[in-house]
Amino acid sequence: MRTVVATLALVVAFTLPALAADQVEKAPPSGAYKKVSELVKLPDFLPGLGQLYVDPKTLPAGPFLAYDRDERLVSIVYMLPVEDLSNKDKRFDDLAAPGGRVDHVDVYFNAGHPGVEKPHAHVVLWHVPKADEQRVAAK
């Protein structure tokens, strides 16, 4: 009986950290993520991206979690400063995709906006098929 109790205690001890991991599939995400519109002067919903959340410690690169109007995760966005991309000594290693499987990736230039003022590249890791990107289109 003692062995069973000890085994159960170990299972619980190793399971709790996994249960405590950030939940990102539905907005608002758990953990240190904050709504971007509460951190900088941006609207709650950005057409083409959706509603964004970020852990402020990871700025300016992110990851930014992007949700549709039904609060479902659609993509992860990285905002990588152009000056860093052109610096041979700067690396962006181990960029996470907290939402799981990535369907496709878009990369495009942005001249800057509140929160990431410098020119940067948006690297969008879509978790939905191309046809479902309209879930974050303007209405």
From TrEMBL:
Residues 68-109 form the TTHB210-like domain. Gene3D superfamilies: 3.30.200.270. Residues 1-20 form the signal peptide. The keyword Aminoacyl-tRNA synthetase does not apply. Keywords: Signal. InterPro entries: TTHB210-like (IPR033786), TTHB210-like_dom (IPR040832). Coiled coil: none annotated. It comes from the Bacteria. This is TTHB210-like domain-containing protein.
